[in-house]
Amino acid sequence: MPRPYDLAIVGLGPAGLAAARLAANELGLRVAAVERSRVGGDCLWSGCVPSKSFIASARLSSTMTSTKALGLTDAAAAVDIARAWQRISTIRDEIAASETDVEHVRDWGVDVMVGSATITGPRRVLISSDDGDTEIESRFILIAAGSRPAIPSIPGIGDIDVLTNESLFDLDSPPASLTVIGAGPVGIETAQSMRRLGIPVTIFDAAPRILMNEEPELTERLLGVLRHEGLDVHLGEPVTGVQLLDDGGVGIETPLGEYRADHLMVATGRSSDVAGLGLERIGVVATASGVSVDARSRTIVPNVYAVGDAAAGRPRLTSTAIADATLAVRDMFLPGRAMSTTLAPWCVFADPELAHVGFTAAQARDRFGERSVQVHRLELSRVARARIDGATDGMLMLITARNRIVGGHVLAAHASEVINEIALAIRFSLGLDELAQVPHVYPTLASGLSQIVEAQRSGRIRRFRQIAKIGRITG
What we know:
7-stranded mixed beta sheet, globular, alpha/beta, 15 helices
């Protein structure tokens, strides 16, 4: 067998690519990477890139229908949804060709192998392809296999050709109408963008509200926006059965009635794609939740690491997957120990966007006690930038405990940009006063954070009125 590799990577999504580039291109290590499908993973082909490309078209279409509010002649334009749909493929292909092409990765010095990986030992990986089997040896193994859509156990669903985020954007054209099971981030983002481009959409979810991981006060506000735009949202109404109809449609049963759908999409979460890797051979338990890892992303086998959606208990975000992969490589080959962060900003790219980091108000009260927690709110209608842009439907919310910021929630057009500043404040245990020590550019949405601080300060400063007036007596 040829000399061992330093690192074998299973999966070339965002996490695997980040690890491969650092290990091979930057550190000059001998790296092999196994990918059974398309380089770039879910984020490029069926997740972030296609969904946000479609959302961009939908957002602009919505803006053009409401220009009168900005004092402009109605600029509404006919929607060419076929061109918007084709734009998704164009963007994916451009990014793939410029950043994640196989030859591009090989230029880093990575041996890219196309096929299915099986872990045959603590230091061995078997790659199976149409050309046969190849076994390699490596000092370290990094599992970055990602995840796949979880299909719920609904009677009859196995007889239906359901859509998921992995298959939706591979359609030649968008569906004429759509029914979505699941009011989480994928369901909400997809449903709103489809509806804005003229496609009728219905959503079902057994939960009592949308986006159950978000601040309830803000999800109610967003739900109002979605319903105003024409989304038919059924909450607290689980789908109990589906069946294929004679006309090719889908029959949907719930405790409250029967419905018909032309196309059915499932958006009920994701399962780690670690089954079938043979990890049980080395004593590593692989479940739908992923592989258990420590703070250094190591499995119970010290030289086998898992990151991204393959790791249990980690946020299923592209940003944290890349960060964890980078830290894992550092932990393997460089001095010191690299620990994965427990803090990750998150954004649902609806319109307005809903972003959060840290604790919700309820979580903070459970953790720190009712008397230690304060919730600071600012309506966007009081933020100059939001008023200028005509986008005042939203809120900034900061949560403090023992005078330190422990949570942030933003419902606004550019919440994904503002939330990073709040994440830094939480990471470095800042209080409100410290957050405002650097003046914010005006007018910006982030300047609303300064307004929250000033409102807090005003209450304290009033207590010193008499001291301030002493100068009248002393001259």
